[in-house]
Amino acid sequence: MAVKKTELYSLLWEAANKLRGGVEPARYKDYVLTLLFFKYVSDRYKGQRYGDFIVEEGASFDDLIAAKGKKDIGERVDKILSAFLEENQLQGSLPDVSFNNEDELGRGKELVDKVTDLIAVFENPAIDFKTNRASGDDIIGDAYEYFMMKFAQESGKSKGQFYTPSEVSRTMARLLGISKIQPRKGRPWTLYDPAAGSGSLLIRAADEAPVNRQGNAIVSIYGQEKDNSTAGLAKMNLVLHQKGTGEIKTHSTLTSPQYLDEYGHLRKFDFIVMNPPFSDKSWSDGITPENDIYHRFDGYGIPPEKNGDWAWFLHVLKSLTEDGKAAIIMPHGILFRGNSEETIRKQVLARKYITGIVSLPANLFYGTGIPACIVIVDKEDADEHEGIFMIDASQGCKKDGNKNRLREQDIERIVLTFNNRLEDDGYSRMVGYDEILEENDGNLNVPRYIQRSNTELPQDIAAHLQGGIPADDVDSLDELWQVAPNLKQLLFSQQQSGRFSLLHAPDELAAEITTDESLAAQKVIESSALLDAWAQACARPALLDVGSDTDPRMMIRQIGQELLEHYAAAKVLDPFDVFDVLMNYWNALLQDDIYIIKASGYQAGHEVDYTHKKSTSSQNTDTGKVESFEGILIPATLIEAEYYPETQTLLANLNRAILDIEAELEALLEDQSEEDTPFSEVLSDTGKVVEKELTARLKILDSMKTSAQLNILDELLEHLAAKHNTRVSWVLKQHPDIADLDLYGKTGKPIKTKLTAARQQLASFTPVPEAYKDEYEALTGYRNKLERIKALKKQAKEAREQLDQKVIAKYDKLTEDEIKHLLFDRKWLVHLASEIESLFDQQVNAYATRITNVARRYERTLPRIQTAVNYSRESVLNSLKKMGYTW
Length: 887
Known about the structure:
Helix content is 51%, strand content 10%. By secondary structure, the protein is of the alpha/beta class. Helix 11 (309-319) links the parallel strand 4 (269-274) and strand 5. The chain has a nine-stranded mixed β-sheet with strand order 3-2-1-4-5-7-6-8-11. A two-stranded antiparallel sheet has the order 9-10. Strands 12-13 form a two-stranded antiparallel ribbon. It is globular and about 130 Å long. It is built from 32 helices and 15 strands.
């Protein structure tokens, strides 16, 4: 079974929680990711003779499991990991951690328990990589990067520099153009990152490259990272993304580049991606820039001593082949700063190497809050380049905690706009080199060339003075009037001045808009018809034909782009917002489903995951009894709704009835006065009825009931208990009305159970003393409702158990067509339709809000305000005069 991304994320964070208290948060990743890496490699390669890694007895994850609970567990784990590293010649390539570190993990039993619990997390069957060979490897790697992101979030500025957000990495990779290459003989394609960090940029770029017949990328990966620990993380990251042959070398790239050719010159690469440290103040440590032996600054100039942005940039230029391409993250300052940086910039521009600039939102990166940009470099046929394609994507993001994050729609819009060179007013534009160099003296600041659209409506002085809504303000909602042409006349009336007045109260606008027939018809088109057309033409063939050779990432990208094309006809919804709905669902759930199908086929729809009850002992062991279950692919509720709707409806009605009675009981208590309530004897300190106390109190009240018949029955019970059988017979002869009751057993003699039942029945018709009547009725009514709840719950439980058995049996009987129908039509498509419908409703509400704001903008004219001010002034003066204050 494929590993689920969501489960792996949860388990990684659970493992981190085991380290809290002693281990610094910045170190969580070192322990957890080391175990994730070892678990993955051990599961994948143990027992393989010719695998990428050697995993032998005594150096596998199974040996870690055997060490659990041992007094010397820390020492054992270190030895096992050391043996693995030595066998694979990986010494020094993983983070420097010791599971015998008493300073971080505690002493004695504390260390034993902590390391044991940590290993136990990775024993979870949900992350058994042995059975995950068919798919899901990029999910494992993505989970690794998720954890890196969480670490960067928690560690702040000083520790987040090594991590490039996944969204930015994916954007850069798609802008690089590496997807267009074809396999070539002789010299393999090469990809390089001189500031590799944790390797995410390299991995995302390599993911975009085509693969050969064996399914391997046709690019070779090379990276250099100054920090040894971070370089280790990058190596693990490559392995977890099935790119273990990639090289990561250490040392400072600017001081001691590790990739040289046979002549000692910088090695040339076909593609380069890089996110260097911004404004690197120590870039020149260890080198003399004027005499740089690699000639990186020749013909360009020397970057400022305390700012290495251009130093890193020029290293990239020198490391590119003559037709090489690069995508580099840079702070905005390199686009416009003067002095030596201006000189360098003009030299680069003169060579026409820069072909694209994407201005990103501020506060995207964990190491800094300043805005950055992606600079695209292309040395191929540079003399023929006509200009730089610029995109201002600085507004496209969402808030995520204290950082901003690119949404899926932001990534897609950037990529489609850049790769197709789509000019969009206020967003993108092709800017000629002549305009840059001659008219703007080499300044590349994006706002110089792209003026952001101003959506603010101008203030209308006449309307503020005379009242009414300006025609321009009403016309600004033209996209709404195009969809609902009658709505404008329904909401507004035009005055002689040409301005408009609102015909409805502001709080009535939403209802008027949502009930418009034209808008309702458009809602059906955009939330149903367009979606169905895409689903049948694109999504259904792709999602219902997933096999072991399917590339899920390319598949979702393809159907996502087709979704954009289908929604180009939308008049209310933004196609990119709809695209975001699809991609958010993909990231949250759909991706997991597709990888499971890729690994196990659609027959995985038969599989059920059981949760077992745990014992109440301190060991919390599995009892083997099923507590709950859920389909691996198909939720049980879908099976219920599709095949057993009557039982599902019955359960819903029973639960609703239970909730209604519970609400009645709660309301009954709330309606009582605190001082004089008939429930005073049965309430807890929190004001709740204690059922045990309720039963005891009613027993006392029942004992207060008196009648001749009850007295006789009590006498009979006493005689029966004392075995005075003769006396029992005599009493019954004296009271024939009692003798006629159902008091007798199979032998024809009175028995205790019958007497007791008869007494209870008679007592139910016998009133309590008048002083206790109200209390008794209230408590009896409450008890009857409780009994009704118990009966309903019992009925619901029995129905639930019967339905569960039917559902479990049904999973085994599902045909492949039924599985596909349930997945596509009842699960995936229903979710998307619901989200898109909600999106449409949000846009309609936005229209209503805008109309309200426009109307209120000119609601109070200046003369009215002046009149109100004068009135208030006069009122205050009169009040002061009455108080004796005059002047």
